[in-house]
Amino acid sequence: MIWVDELKILIGISINTSGNRIMTSPNGIDWEVQVITPTNNNEQTLNDIVWSPELELFVVVYGASGGTIRPILTSSDAITWTSQATATYTANSSFGGTFQNRIVFLISIALSPELDLLVCITTDGRIISSPDGINWTNKSDPAGDAGRGVKSLSNSNGTNVIWVSELNLFVAVYQGGDHRVFTSTDGINWTIIVVSLNAWNSVAWSPQLSLLCAVADSGTGNRVMTSVDGAN
After folding, report:
1. How many other CB atoms are found less than 10 A from the CB of residue 218?
2. Are 48 and 119 contacting, i.e. CB atoms less than 8 angstroms apart?
3. pTM to 2 decimals?
4. Cα distance between residue 65 and residue 54, in whole Å
5. Per residue in 100-114, pLDDT tens?
6. Per the CB 3.0–4.6 Å rule, which of 58, 76, 82, 112 could disulfide with 163?
7. DSSP codes joined into one string, the chain
8. Dihedral through CA 136, CA 167, CA 182, CA 171, nearest 10?
9. What's the average model confidence in pLDDT over 140-161?
10. pLDDT confidence of 177, banded at 50, 70, 90?
11. Phi and psi at residue 111, in whole multiples of 5°?
């Protein structure tokens, strides 16, 4: 759920795969259901939402299955929503040759006002970016070449990405894979940060403490880690 001061509206999304999944309220008491009709409507779990004041645009990303290729919703008013196609990657065909496959398992999205850039990570380890929420570019797998169209990243599992204005840094955490934290100053080039291989679920930045904090729901040792710069 987010509050958009420019529109004086609360908007909440649901990960449920049936029924109403977007609601809006001007006061947190009175709520109105908003109808959405994206591709394969019955197969979506709305995972994350962001508002861009510069674009005057909401962007919602969701997990998709069954061949859905438009797992992004955009709206200027939180009432009328439009499905957007995601980026592609080059995959190898079992019959020989290659083909363009859509990236669909979107889990988390972050906005950098400083870069005028939206960045989204997927549950299979990929990263895509967009300057406008409509046209998306594949930034591939920051862990390396293992999943760049050769196979799905079965051992990689993105969970959360944020932008930290004070550090001029994107920070992404993963539940699975050989590496669990990645950072980027431009949303294009990503640096591997070596951390314990726990299932990191979420990361947040505190401006008051000048501190990053990530939490994990499983693994060995400590399930909470902190950093002042995203690198240590």
Report:
1. 10
2. no
3. 0.88
4. 31
5. 888 888 999 999 999
6. 112
7. -EEETTTTEEEEE---SSS--EEEESSSSS-EE-----TTGGG-EEEEEEEETTTTEEEEEEE--TT----EEEESSSSS-EEE---EEEEE-TTSSEEEEE---EEEEEEETTTTEEEEEETTS-EEEESSSSS-EE---TT-STTSSSS--TT-EEEEEEEETTTTEEEEEEEESS--EEEESSSSS-EEE------EEEEEEETTTTEEEEEESSSSS-SEEEESSS--
8. -60
9. 58
10. confident
11. -115, 130
Tokens of 118: 């939206």
Paired tokens of 132: 């406008």
Tokens standing for residue 110: 């972050």
Residue listed under structure tokens 């002042």: 228
